[in-house]
Write a sequence for this structure.
């Protein structure tokens, strides 16, 4: 019905399963996924250019200087950034682009792209979130405590998001995020051209019948 | 996540397949369907109390006098109305209630229930709409011309709806309407209680870890 690409920002608490949700979403539906750049160490199995563009601090800071990111932020002592070129090219092609970014970056995006759709992934409740952080096993207790502190702070920012989607069952969560993006594309404000086309067509058809 | 019932208003051009979409939606998902009252003649196969509450003009006007409708309107010389009691009872129970009503009634509902979600079902284009009206076979040419005139007028009102959903393929259309209703329930503004609960829980959990 409409051909404009939607910019979709997905954030969420650490440990809530953002990465898995986004991976499934992109496998199942026709979204363009922006791969972030980061200075953090790759986790086991992560592939450069697929999971992240892994950069040194020097490389990252150089890209900042050259305006190579539409947003960048520091989170748990590492840089994260969204490369400008890919996002702008895909949106121009009419593709829906997904960014998986942290809260700071999301707020930054909303300022620059007021039509962006901000989705916050959350857990059914606080204890579930804690359990997920613990069972992840790749972080020590200190990091978990730090992430819970961060999660607590992020509850303040949740209200700036357009939608909150609970990740309880992975497949259901993926469908719910997809539903949000679909619904956004059906908003009347995004289909003004369709209305004027329909009006013109019906005006013509009526005249033909009356003749 | 939230327990409040959503009031969903579904309108659309005559011939667009509103009735079939709503029927499938209610069969497949857990919605409460409000059955309208009308003074128009039953079509073959329509069942009183299921498709409509069929009323005489006298009965209908009496119900208007007794405030028995949350909205009523006249359309192609017949009365249509939404019985008040059913809608208010279901919403109070936390159920999502679907109303299939005409444009006049929808505008009326939006005034009384600002949180209502207004969905307009439309055809892929004007010619498809004309073809559907013709192939329906239960109406003569005069009525078709009248309905096309009405459809043309209704394009003016489309912009007052929250969402436009195209009925091209029936099953896809049903999923799209369901997606819109799902998405509405995930809106941050409708989940303020969830945010404050999460904040409280995370605050407690952090203190336990620090101790």
């Amino acid at each position: 019905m409409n051909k404009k690409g939607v910019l979709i920002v997905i954030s969420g608490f650490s440990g809530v399963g953002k990465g898995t949700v986004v991976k499934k979403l992109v496998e199942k539906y026709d979204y363009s996924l922006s791969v972030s750049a980061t200075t953090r160490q790759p986790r086991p199995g992560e592939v450069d250019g697929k999971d992240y563009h892994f950069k040194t601090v020097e490389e990252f800071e150089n890209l900042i200087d050259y305006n190579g990111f539409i947003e960048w932020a520091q989170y748990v002592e590492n840089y994260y950034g969204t490369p400008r070129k890919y996002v702008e090219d895909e949106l121009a092609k009419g593709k829906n682009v997904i960014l998986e970014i942290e809260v700071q970056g999301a707020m930054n995006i909303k300022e620059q792209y007021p039509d962006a759709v901000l989705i916050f992934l959350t857990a059914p409740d606080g204890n579930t979130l804690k359990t997920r952080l613990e069972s992840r096993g790749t972080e020590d207790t200190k990091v978990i405590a730090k992430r819970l502190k961060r999660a607590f702070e992020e509850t303040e920012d949740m209200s700036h998001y357009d939608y909150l989607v609970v990740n309880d069952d992975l497949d259901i969560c993926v469908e719910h995020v997809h539903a949000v993006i679909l619904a956004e594309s059906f908003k009347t404000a995004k289909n003004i051209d369709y209305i004027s086309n329909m009006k013109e067509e019906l005006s013509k058809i009526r005249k033909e019948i009356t003749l």
Strands of chain B lie at 7-12, 32-33, 37-38, 53-54, 69-75, 78-83, 97-100, 117-122, 163-166. Chain B touches chain A through 50 residues (CB under 8 Å).
